[in-house]
């Protein structure tokens, strides 16, 4: 009989909110298909008792929390740790935001694998107080985790300043390959397949949205630019982005439906990726899985993921110049798209990544099984 793994740190399954949720769902389904018992902790709204059910082969523990925002997430993490600590199953934790709670699992000698995400505490958008909290929790997670997962080689190097190299394993994020998609979701937005660019990210300065919008809007284009996300003029940065946009830039708002997003990516001529911090970004991997040509911000994170098939920018002027070069050249865009798909297939399929998770979980369980025997031999 295969062991049980408990997945914590995501909002639960089905995953529709972000990279951690997608990873938890896909890794969980893979493990369940391999015979593991998989328990996923899911955050529910409101109050009431903890409930359990089954969804697509995964056991779900629903924990209601009647608090907004990060306070609700922190309470959910605390209650998830408390519930999971009733058992001795290996725990797979996504994120270190509340790493202090995982100390309890370590004290109880529960096997603990933590995906350390990017260098989350360094993001200026959190403000100094929350940055300090995240920094402390990062250090705690690096200490209490039996194994740490880095999602990018640069993150692996960084984590070696926090923990011994033997504790760290590099496993990226994945995506589902998109080989076809209906065009209707694209046309509903007033777009023509193959005649627009996409930009999908949080509307914050570290994602270079203003540089990308300014560079695109520097002159009239034969393509449109679709900027997906919730933009509000009451936010100074978002207002600046909206003001910089030409009439060829479309703001459809946030799109959470995965099928609509897949269609939007699949029919896009070029994907713009402006992330400047973090490790492997799920949005970039998803664009590559759809065969998108990619223009990305020039930094070690993006260069490792997209490799030589993409083009890279640093300034709005770079964006304008590169768009002038690549958009009229359909053959070049096709080559870039094929390079993206080839790179995706080599390193970012869920089957490959979930298999790496399984091997790591097996190693951790094997380590825990040997420890009592080693102690017995030492006493003898």
Write up this protein:
- The chain has 380 residues and is of the alpha/beta class.
- The protein folds into 2 domains: 202 residues, 3-Layer(aba) Sandwich (Rossmann fold); 164 residues, 3-Layer(aba) Sandwich (Rossmann fold).
- Helices cover 45% and strands 18% of the residues.
- The chain has 14 helices and 14 strands.
- The strands form 2 sheets. Strands 3-4-2-1-5-6-7-8 form an 8-stranded mixed β-sheet, with helices on both faces. It has a 6-stranded parallel β-sheet with strand order 11-10-9-12-13-14, with helices on both faces.
- α8 links the parallel β10 and β11.
- α2 runs parallel beside α3 and α7 crosses α12.
- The radius of gyration is 22 Å and the shape is globular.
- 41% of the residues are buried.
Topology record:
Elements: E1 4-8, H1 19-33, E2 37-45, E3 51-55, E4 58-65, H2 69-84, E5 90-94, H3 99-107, E6 112-115, H4 127-144, E7 147-150, H5 153-159, E8 168-170, H6 184-187, E9 196-200, H7 209-217, E10 224-228, H8 236-244, E11 249-253, H9 258-266, E12 270-273, H10 282-289, E13 294-297, H11 300-306, E14 311-313, H12 316-326, H13 330-347, H14 350-379
Parallel strand pairs: 1-2, 1-5, 2-4, 5-6, 6-7, 7-8, 9-10, 9-12, 10-11, 12-13, 13-14
Antiparallel strand pairs: 3-4
């Amino acid at each position: 009989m295969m062991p049980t793994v408990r997945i914590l740190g995501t909002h639960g399954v089905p995953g529709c909110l972000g990279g951690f949720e997608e990873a938890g769902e896909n890794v969980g389904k893979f493990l369940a298909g391999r015979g593991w018992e998989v328990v996923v902790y899911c955050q529910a709204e409101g109050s009431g008792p903890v409930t359990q059910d089954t969804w697509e082969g995964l056991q779900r523990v629903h924990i209601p929390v009647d608090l907004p925002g990060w306070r609700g997430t922190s309470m959910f993490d605390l209650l998830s740790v408390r519930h999971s600590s009733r058992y001795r199953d290996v725990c797979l934790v996504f994120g270190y935001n509340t790493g202090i709670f995982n100390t309890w699992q370590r004290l109880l000698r529960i096997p603990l694998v933590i995906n350390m995400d990017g260098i989350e505490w360094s993001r200026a958008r959190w403000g100094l107080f929350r940055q300090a909290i995240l920094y402390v929790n990062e250090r705690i997670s690096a200490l209490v985790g039996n194994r740490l997962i880095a999602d990018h080689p640069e993150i692996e190097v960084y984590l070696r300043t926090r923990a011994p190299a033997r504790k760290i394993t590099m496993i990226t994020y994945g995506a589902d390959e998109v080989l076809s998609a209906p065009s209707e979701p694209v046309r509903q937005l007033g777009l023509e397949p193959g005649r627009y660019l996409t930009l999908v990210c949080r509307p914050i300065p570290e994602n270079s949205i203003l540089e990308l919008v300014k560079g695109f809007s520097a002159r009239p284009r034969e393509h449109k630019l679709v900027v997906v996300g919730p933009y509000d003029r009451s936010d100074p940065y978002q207002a600046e982005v909206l003001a910089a946009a030409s009439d060829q830039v479309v703001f459809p708002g946030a799109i959470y439906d995965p099928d609509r997003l897949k269609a939007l990516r699949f029919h896009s001529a070029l994907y713009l990726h402006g992330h400047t911090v973090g490790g492997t970004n799920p949005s970039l991997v998803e664009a590559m899985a759809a065969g998108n040509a990619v223009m990305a911000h020039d930094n070690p994170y993006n260069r490792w993921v997209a490799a030589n098939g993409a083009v890279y920018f640093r300034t709005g002027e770079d964006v304008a110049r590169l768009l002038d070069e690549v958009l009229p050249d359909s053959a070049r865009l096709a080559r870039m798209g094929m390079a993206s798909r080839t790179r995706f297939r080599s390193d970012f399929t869920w089957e490959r990544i979930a298999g790496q998770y399984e091997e790591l979980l097996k190693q951790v369980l094997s380590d825990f099984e040997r420890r009592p025997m080693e102690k017995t031999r030492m006493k003898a």
